[in-house]
Structures are given as C-alpha cells and as structure tokens.
Amino acid sequence: MTDWNNIDLELESHLNLIEAYSFDDLLLEVNCNLKIINRDTVTAQFKESLQSSIIEAKEVFQANLDAIVSKAIKTREEV
Asked: Is residue 32 part of a domain?
C-alpha cells in the first residue's frame, strides 16, 4: 500500500501526482450525483472534482517536498 505522505522516490517516482480523470469518470459522477443534469450542474460537478484532485495533489506534493528536492539535487549531482 502506498504511503502518499512518504513516497519512496527510488521505487515510486512513476506514480501520478494527479490521477487521470476521464470522460467516463465525469459521466459516472454526473449520473450518480446530480438530480438535475444540465450545462450548469455538469460544469459544477467537473469543477468540484477537478478542485478536489488539485487539493489532494498539493497535499501529496507538500508532504513529499523535502524528498523531491533531495532527489532532484542527488540526480543533478550524478550527471
């Protein structure tokens, strides 16, 4: 199980900071979450989901910032 607050950048650097968000994902959310489906409600759902993903990515980034900086410095020194 991935510890998102302590990513091992030697083994887990391939992980996405922001997960993919497909049309299928949006359509599923719309059909499950919205009583009324129209341009405004679909736009609001999209923005809410996108904002949630951004907040989560910022939290993961912040939790791993020291490791990211350290790995970047180490990589540059190896070149």
From this structure: yes
The reply to whether 3 falls in a domain is: no
Q: Which domain holds residue 70?
A: 23-78
Name residues whose C-beta falls within 8 Å of residue 50's C-beta, 6 or more positions apart in sequence.
21
Counted domains in the chain = 1
- The whole model's pTM is what? 0.84
CA 1 to chain centre: 17
Residue 60, in any domain of the structure: yes
Q: What CA–CA distance (Å, rounded) separates 30 from 24?
A: 10
* Residue 8 structure tokens: 């091992």
Backbone angles phi, psi at 35, to 5 degrees: -75, -40
> pLDDT, tens digit, for every residue of 8-67?
999 999 999 999 999 999 999 999 999 999 999 999 999 999 999 999 999 999 999 999
